[in-house]
Design brief:
Keywords: 4Fe-4S, Iron, Iron-sulfur, Metal-binding, Molybdenum, Oxidoreductase
CATH class of the largest domain: Alpha Beta
CATH topology of the largest domain: Rossmann fold
Bound molecules: ligand MGD, molybdenum atom
GO molecular function: 4 iron, 4 sulfur cluster binding; formate dehydrogenase (NAD+) activity; molybdenum ion binding
Structural class: alpha/beta
Strand content: 15-25%
InterPro entries: Asp_de-COase-like_dom_sf, MopB_CT_YdeP, Mopterin_OxRdtase, Mopterin_OxRdtse_a_bac, Prok_molybdopt-oxidoreductase, YdeP_MopB
Protein name: CbbBc protein
Shape: globular
Strand order of the largest sheet: 6-5-18-17-16-7
Number of helices: 32
Number of strands: 33
Helix content: 25-40%
Number of domains: 3
Radius of gyration: 25 Å
CATH architecture of the largest domain: 3-Layer(aba) Sandwich
Pfam family, one: Molybdopterin
Largest sheet: 6 strands, mixed
Length: 778
């Protein structure tokens, strides 16, 4: 398969979903090599007794039997459930150096990893190794470190609750809290901000709330691609006259028009329905100013109401009885000048007022957000500001209202609940200690950025990855690659070949694991695993397809193997737990609040809801109240280290996902809704900026990012595309531009790489023959 065809660009005129989605699903099926088998399995997606979709973390209504997968869920399933195998013969044919020349797309396309492999430095090939030998090698490396804190234990958000619980139990019994995870690059800021404001770092709404909301605000999210099943509640909301208000610099098709693929009449009549009632296009990183301006309007109207005796704008009783700090916050609103709000938000005063009016008109409001909010310097402050706004009108802890950080990976939220957390709460550690009787490490561990720093500095020497693609998902790519290769041992527990396997430490292992779609058979029979969605619903997932090879093992079995080799039967008998996952769930029930009768409650269709204290207006903050945060606005959105370069950036770049990818997994080269086809190495820029900067659409350029640390960060040979994007902004696909994100450019209080705010300059292309070299670059 050739990776890169010619770039074609034609603005997309169809609706989201609809025929385009059906065509794309059919292609994914056929390409899996086992379409009929997969079709049967797909019909079980998100059904009782079936598997949880390995796509996103959007939740589903239990029961009703309707088909419950979307285009991108189908792609995820067919990508995992392929007949192609990456086995010992494959690795005998290709050296690691040769594989590095291949694109990320090509690597994963080769198929499922089917047997454990060990890197042989002398021949530069991976060679087969037995499972026991692999476990013994890991144990040897872990046992000889000077301190357990010299090992990093990464987790990606597909790991089940059972796998995550065992993993953290093993790692803490081994002696460290070094749990860098994908969440550090994703919704970390949501967790930090919500914990501080309302006492729980999770969203407060369930799917049922969407049906009752009068307004749904969607900030920095592209659900048409990344959470397609969210489009239906949005459509339903518009239908019944609720406001759906979008804040996104790009006009995302998935927020504009929608054709339900499950409704034949709408499809045949080609009828598309609007998905929003207002659309605002702020500056990158401008949302803090947007939300503050909305609050400032509310405050102005509340003041007027107070003096005229008109109906209150604020929920005065809620503010008085449930919250702390409103006075300081209102003073902060007074202290923030309108001119600064207009400048930083990128919206006009009239637009800001319109947004505030839409908000104030609604009795019940849900605010949703995703990466357009979290991957910024001021992400924690922005999310706290969203909560501030919601508090003013009591939009928390009642039906149809609340906050909804829409999660990414299908079990990223569950992994945190299970203790994948480098800064675990004391109550969690106390509970572990009580149940398992060993003294747990209390000091903080490394997050993703700190782990990279430690490996670069030689302070961390072993890296174990439970899923994911650490080499490509992280910032500052060349430094991260170096960090992995500095290690004495790298271990990747994976389903598919990716670049992380090609950045081996001195020694390296690939441990092939079962995925969500595979039947997981243990001593007591086929096993279910459990996951938690964005609405805190816990449900079971049963694999449906026989694994491609008998050599693959489940994630719990692999973790148990590593644990037993390293620690023996301490603090539990690992193999007994793996024989029947009910035993793992029993331990979870005995350790974590909210999981009583875990095994029994799973039998209900749709699973069960983990109670959210905010739904009954209990605030688990230090003060016992919902807390306002009165941050001043940053003086400028440009970080000090950008200003210190003394250079003015040409543009501010955001990195985003195309319609044909799942994070670093690239399914194809089309971004259907944005009209970009055939290529991913493109830079979307406003035509006015091209003119201003003296470039032409179609030209190839190098992109250089600004950060005053003496390191040159450059990607080469990107094609300029004139696109409907606000002037001064640019957009390009992740992970191709990750080399431009400085490791030290992180969110305040969240440590999340600022992947949506990269100051860049364009330079003439330094590639001689870009077309030919493209494969090597990706
Ligand atoms: N098919 C598919 N599904 C996925 C994924 C995938 O890669 N593919 N990834 C999963 C994961 S892990 C995650 S975290 C989610 C990600 O889901 P999203 O957050 O939707 O993903 P992004 O593509 O990063 O989109 C960010 C959106 O925010 C907008 N944006 C960027 N900067 C700003 C800003 O400063 N302000 C505002 N208001 N908007 C901004 C962008 O224009 C874009 O529409 O999706 C999950 N689901
Ligand atoms: N520039 C930029 N960087 C970003 C982002 C961005 O928007 N811009 N987004 C960030 C976000 S939100 C996230 S969540 C991270 C994602 O970071 P990761 O979660 O680390 O990356 P993925 O691409 O999801 O990982 C894909 C790999 O996971 C493995 N895998 C798939 N399924 C399974 C499974 O069931 N079990 C196991 N063990 N392995 C499996 C496969 O081998 C596959 O190659 O990237 C972050 N990086
Ligand atoms: Mo994510």
């Amino acid at each position: 398969m050739s990776d890169n065809t010619k770039l074609r660009y034609q603005p997309y005129s169809g609706p989201a979903a609809g025929w385009g989605a059906l065509r794309s699903v059919a292609r994914a099926w056929l390409d899996s090599g086992q379409p009929i088998k997969n079709l049967k399995a797909m019909l079980k997606t998100n059904q009782h007794g079936g598997f949880d979709c390995p796509g996103c973390a959007w939740g589903d209504e239990p029961g009703n039997g309707a088909v419950k997968f979307c285009e991108n869920g189908a792609k995820a399933v067919n990508w995992e459930a392929t007949r192609r195998a990456v086995d010992a013969r494959f690795f005998a044919r290709h050296s690691v150096s040769q594989l590095r020349e291949q694109s990320d797309y090509w690597l994963e396309y080769q198929g499922r990893l089917t047997e454990p492999m060990r890197y042989d430095r002398a021949s530069d090939h991976y060679q087969p190794i037995g499972w026991d030998e692999a476990f013994a090698l890991i144990a040897k490396h872990l046992q000889r470190l000077d301190s357990p804190d010299q090992a990093e234990f990464y987790t990606s958000g597909r790991a089940s609750n059972e796998a995550a619980f065992l993993y953290q139990l093993f790692v803490r019994a081994y002696g460290t809290n070094n749990f860098p995870d994908c969440s550090n690059m994703c919704h970390e800021a949501s967790g930090v901000a919500l914990n501080a404001s309302i006492g729980v770092g999770k969203g407060s709404v369930t799917l049922a709330d969407f049906a009752q909301a009068d307004a749904i605000l969607v900030f920095g999210q592209n659900p048409g691609t990344n959470h397609p099943r969210m489009l239906e509640p949005l459509r339903e909301a518009v239908h019944r006259g609720a406001q759906v208000v979008c804040f996104n610099p790009l006009r995302e098709r998935g927020l504009e028009r929608f054709q339900p693929p499950q409704e034949p009449l709408a499809m045949l009549g080609n009828r598309a329905e609007p998905l929003n009632t207002a659309y605002f296009r702020p500056a990158l990183g401008g949302d803090l100013a947007v939300v503050r301006a909305m609050a400032k309007y509310l405050w102005q109207w509340e003041r007027e109401a107070r003096s005229s005796g008109a109906a209150a704008v604020f929920d005065r009783e809620f503010l008085a009885t449930q919250t702390l700090g409103v006075e300081a916050y209102l003073a902060q609103l007074d202290a923030t000048p309108w001119a600064v709000l207009v400048e930083q938000s990128g919206l006009s005063l009239a637009e800001l007022e319109q947004a505030a009016r839409l908000y104030a008109k609604a009795d019940r409001v849900i605010v949703c957000w995703a990466m357009g909010i979290t991957q910024h310097h001021h992400s924690v402050a922005t999310i706290r500001e969203i909560v501030n706004l919601q508090l003013l009108r009591g939009n928390l802890g009642r039906p149809g209202a609340g906050v909804c950080p829409v999660r990414g990976h299908s079990n990223v939220q569950g992994d945190r609940t299970m203790g994948i957390n480098e800064r675990p709460p004391a109550a969690f550690l106390d509970a572990l200690e009580r149940r398992f009787g060993f003294s747990v490490p209390r000091h903080h561990g490394h997050n993703t950025v700190e782990a990279i720093g430690a490996m670069l500095a030689g302070q961390a020497r072993v890296f174990i990855g439970l899923g994911g693609n650490f080499a490509q998902a992280t910032p500052d790519t060349p430094r991260t690659h170096q960090a992995l290769m500095n290690c004495e041992l790298t271990v990747q527990i994976s389903t598919k070949l990716n670049r992380s396997h090609l950045m081996p430490g001195h020694e390296a292992l690939i441990l092939p694991c079962l995925g969500r779609t595979d039947i997981d058979r243990q001593a007591s029979g086929p096993q279910a695993v459990t996951v938690e969605d964005s609405f805190s619903m816990i449900h079971a997932s049963y694999g449906q397809l026989p694994p491609l090879s008998t050599q693959m093992r489940s994630e719990p079995a692999i973790i148990a193997g590593i644990a037993e080799a390293t620690l023996g039967k301490h603090p539990v008998d690992w193999s007994v737990l793996v024989a029947n996952y009910k035993a793992i769930r029993q331990l979870i029930a005995e350790t974590l609040p909210g999981f009583g009768d875990f095994n029994q409650r799973l039998e209900q269709p749709g699973g069960f809801h983990l109670e959210h204290p905010v739904s009954t207006r209990q605030w688990q903050t230090a003060s016992g109240k919902a807390e306002f945060a009165a941050h001043p606005l940053p003086p400028t959105l440009l970080h000090r280290r950008i200003r210190q370069t003394g250079q003015q950036p040409d543009l501010i770049l955001q990195s985003l996902r195309s319609h044909d990818q799942y994070n670093t997994t690239i399914y194809g080269f089309d971004d259907r809704y944005r009209g970009v086809r055939g290529r991913r190495d493109v830079l979307l820029v406003n035509a006015l900026d091209l003119q201003r900067l003296g470039w032409e659409a179609g030209q190839e350029v190098d992109i250089v990012s600004l950060w005053a640390d003496g390191i040159e960060r450059r990607v080469r040979g990107f094609t300029l595309l004139a696109y409907d994007i606000p002037p001064g902004q640019a957009a390009a696909y992740y992970p191709e531009i990750n080399p431009l994100v400085p490791l030290e450019s992180v969110g305040e209080g969240s440590y999340t790489p600022t992947s949506k705010f990269i100051a860049i300059c364009l330079e003439p292309c330094s590639l001689k023959n870009p077309e030919k070299l493209l494969g090597a670059l990706h």
